[in-house]
Amino acid sequence: MFSRKHLLGLDGVAQEEIISILDTARSFREVLERPIKRLPTLQGKTVVNLFYEPSTRTRISFELAEKRLSADIVNFSASASSVKKGETLIDTVRNIEAMKIDMVVVRHSSPGAAHLLARVLNAHIINAGDGGHEHPTQALLDMFTIREKKGRLDQLTVALVGDISHSRVAMSNIYGLRTMGARVLVCGPSTLIPRHIEWLGVEVYHNIDEIIEQVDVMNILRLQLERQRRGLFPSLREYHNYFGITRERLERATRPILIMHPGPMNRGVEISSDVADSEHSVILEQVTNGLAVRMAILYLLAGGKSEIH
Amino acid sequence: MFSRKHLLGLDGVAQEEIISILDTARSFREVLERPIKRLPTLQGKTVVNLFYEPSTRTRISFELAEKRLSADIVNFSASASSVKKGETLIDTVRNIEAMKIDMVVVRHSSPGAAHLLARVLNAHIINAGDGGHEHPTQALLDMFTIREKKGRLDQLTVALVGDISHSRVAMSNIYGLRTMGARVLVCGPSTLIPRHIEWLGVEVYHNIDEIIEQVDVMNILRLQLERQRRGLFPSLREYHNYFGITRERLERATRPILIMHPGPMNRGVEISSDVADSEHSVILEQVTNGLAVRMAILYLLAGGKSEIH
Amino acid sequence: MFSRKHLLGLDGVAQEEIISILDTARSFREVLERPIKRLPTLQGKTVVNLFYEPSTRTRISFELAEKRLSADIVNFSASASSVKKGETLIDTVRNIEAMKIDMVVVRHSSPGAAHLLARVLNAHIINAGDGGHEHPTQALLDMFTIREKKGRLDQLTVALVGDISHSRVAMSNIYGLRTMGARVLVCGPSTLIPRHIEWLGVEVYHNIDEIIEQVDVMNILRLQLERQRRGLFPSLREYHNYFGITRERLERATRPILIMHPGPMNRGVEISSDVADSEHSVILEQVTNGLAVRMAILYLLAGGKSEIH
Lengths: 309, 309, 309
What we know:
Three copies of one chain form a homotrimer. The first copy, chain A, is α/β, with parallel strands linked by helices.
């Protein structure tokens, strides 16, 4: 059962709530294989996509999910906005809400932006990424993908590899996977792993080869290349040598490892092209599943109890 | 009865036409309170939103109004446009019209842009702001809001406060309110009030405290902060001291004053936060009413005589 | 009969395929004269408009064509995209396709971009312009317009005037018109005509006055003003003197010449205003026909065999 008003993060979301979302998403995943993919769920409802950070895949994924549920959609991106005119975020969203909208999908560079909106607005809020804090729909689609492929989430070992410090994807995955009973490892250079991260119930590794034999799943995070300028890693080549996931590295594993990446990939940096395109990679399935998960969230927040058929 | 082909401004629009728009808007205002807000009025019709100036709230308000009437929508903003390629405005819109569109909502920095389009196109034209000239839908939503709150427009005293010189909102309000029989005061520094504005039937004041006791409504205009550089007022602090609407100032009034602002607000400049958020402020209601008024305009221009139910 | 999966160009497209497209477009051209222009053809199908180059008219024309066929639409333009994040074109479109979309309309500065997408994606691909290579829907709408006006395409002489070297419009027109049996002349300064273009079955002229008496149709190409900086022509005035189509020039013709331009026009450069607005100009009809042709392409690629009624 999922009866929240908002989806702000996975921190504190219970196991049965996550299961409810993933089960609902499975129904929508089947809808996506049909020739006609449109359902009337959100007909006459208005969803505002409020993107204060540039985004392609998350924005398009939400937009498509909303369209397939027949919502009316308003897109609002920072560049075309009152932001330049110095209006506060709260005034902007209060104004948008005054237009009698039903849901807001928000991406913002400030941690807590979605929580702020949830406090001041009556609309349903979905966090599509708030600074380095959470990106719950990404973690849900990651978990959905793992569960479809492995049949379960508990008793699995999942490694999050790369830049943990700046990754809202990592944070939401840690919350969700731990709640679901998975063992979670994080692996990356010490400059890119937050201190005390083990307090969240994860194990910390700095040597990728040490974890290869332990893991069922590797979720390889995007390396923000601009971190290099700040001295957080010496060079792309060196990063690739130490942490890049390559076919040679994976061959040391005794069993197949599910390869995931939230995209967009830096091929040849955090992941080699042959791994990205290998038979164990589910990177494109993650994208498809993302659509199903977002349809499920929209459906559940709108109070969806009707049959999905 | 409203049987115009275009809405270019309120100059010359008769009292019974304005009443017809406001009455129609009231029906749509009720529609906005329903769970399902979509009507089939403009099904199969195409509306082009042609925005040559950046805009958030007006653009989104029109877009939502169009969606709720089931129009097909094409958004055209200057940045993504042929403007860069040096094509004339007329060639651009003739091209757009050749695609068999039905209505154009236009915002442009040049006064008269909407009139120009009305002369060369067969489509219905709605002026969403043309330079410092007119912004009729804003004035209509302001009048709608006053009428809902005060029950009438005649025998009221309405003050427009701030930068009158550069305000198309002020111009359209003056035309509309005078037509409806309201007494209209304008109040601001002499550098921001056009000479001979009293020829339009308004009274000019330069001291805000002189008008506090006379007015039923204050429509507080946004101060364009860039005017300061041009020496039109000395500093934001000084502007606030002389013309900012604060709780202290309003307490001198013997009766409650309806507080309006077309947004986006500069809190602490032309209006203090406590006034903006006070029980007499209808600033967010203006936004909701704007949607209803724009639905009414679209409906009436499309020849709407059918029941709104 | 047209049973291709993609429309990548007109090179190699057979006469009967072109006729099939033009005939289908004629049915849609009639639909455009109706008050309600929406058909359910693409209901529940998703079309992605992937524009890596700025475009107004082509993008809006496709978007309107898609809306009128009731498609769900996702707009993706380079500026708001992962392009900045360094993702490859293939990764971007594979991701978009993973969202279970049905068609991609692509414009890109690289020749062959549409072909590349057709190789890696399962979706239907429509080339909306790839570098200097092809722009097949423009040529189809040009041919549609000629055929409607002249009743045929064979046994006509069509001149393409101006910058042939950088024109995908010219290339697609040459392929299509030659296939349909028209005689094709190209005319422009030698710096703007590719060497060996006559290998494509066209005749090359450098003196506009020499061809005036021979042609039934003039398709006047847009002069990219930035070519001047690269020394490809001396000045706009000189270009206009030698190649600009003016009323005086046309008066030397013994029969009326159909005047076409793909837009946006540089009035007073490649075409004078009186010619652009003359009774022989079908420039705005080209735009309307473009919509019908694009609806036909979308319809046929989607496997359309149903009645258009």
